[in-house]
Design goal:
mainly alpha, single chain
């Protein structure tokens, strides 16, 4: 499209060289430079990338899990027995192992015993009122199965 200016208008003709010189002063580099985007506010800033490590996360063992694990280790080392707290060879029943592992009748001892009895009831019926009666009525494999389930549950619960 061509636009003609009529000389009868009030427009003053523009000197093209002067016009180009004026813009050269305002923008000396005719190559457009992209302007960087303004930085986001600190609250919206994306955190720097942190490289992932191959180390496993650290997980602390809870007192109940530790008591149960230590008690089962004691049974594995010294032996398991029925009908007595400690037999002549030094083997212990489940309550005896819990007492050794806890060191005293503290909260970890009580909670570990409750969890162990709950697992025993889950596997062998609700009729068991106490750990000694349950311990004395089952085989070593059945007792061990309950111990392992209680340890897994304590681990899962992080207690």
């Amino acid at each position: 499209m061509n636009t003609r200016t009529d000389s009868s208008t009030d427009f003053t003709p523009v000197d093209q060289d002067l016009y180009a010189a004026a813009f050269q002063l305002l923008d000396p580099d005719p190559t457009p430079v992209p302007t960087p985007a303004p930085a986001p506010p600190a609250a919206l800033a994306v955190p720097a990338q942190v490289p992932l490590t191959t180390a496993a996360p650290v997980r602390l063992t809870g007192p109940v899990e530790k008591t149960l694990t230590d008690a089962l280790t004691f049974l594995d080392t010294h032996g398991w027995t029925r009908y007595s707290l400690i037999n002549t060879e030094g083997a212990r029943c489940s309550i005896g192992a819990l007492r050794v592992a806890a060191g005293s009748r503290n909260a970890a001892y009580r909670d570990a015993g409750n969890l162990l009895l709950d697992e025993a009831r889950g596997q062998h019926g609700k009729k068991w009122q106490a750990i000694p009666a349950w311990n004395d009525s089952h085989s070593g494999a059945q007792v061990r199965s309950v111990w392992e389930a209680a340890i897994r549950r304590a681990h899962h619960l992080n207690i």
